[in-house]
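Give me the fold.
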Amino acid sequence: MAQSLSQLFVHIIFHVKTTSVVIREQEADELYAYIGSIIKDRQSIPISINGVGDHIHILCILSKNVALADFLEDVKKYSSRWIKTKDNYYKTFAWQGGYGGFSVSPSLCDKTKQYIQKQKEHHKKMTFQEEYLLFLKEYGIEYDEKYLWRD
């Protein structure tokens, strides 16, 4: 085969450090747009980015040329640096070290996009921890809860 072709839909979830300030609503949309630009710079395609104060969700098409761990290292590093320039409030801002990365079937992309866009409503009923545990169970990912919530 002369060409390398792929279309990898990934749903990514990550949380702010427990010692960090949360993302305020007035900066959220600008942060999501900035993260979208980082994603594009990594040869990937942002589809949906949204969240609540303590965590965000990203649905994107990941480039075949980028490893997920390296991709997220850049997204977190550059978005953290950027938000610290917005206001003194964010001087202690940091993302948690880990993340969740979940493959998404093309047939479920619209449903996943809607789920991400409705984060505020969703989190009136469920905490981040409850949501994250559901994802891990749904995808059959083994974990040790004593390490799950560490920064």
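The longest strand covers residues 8-15.
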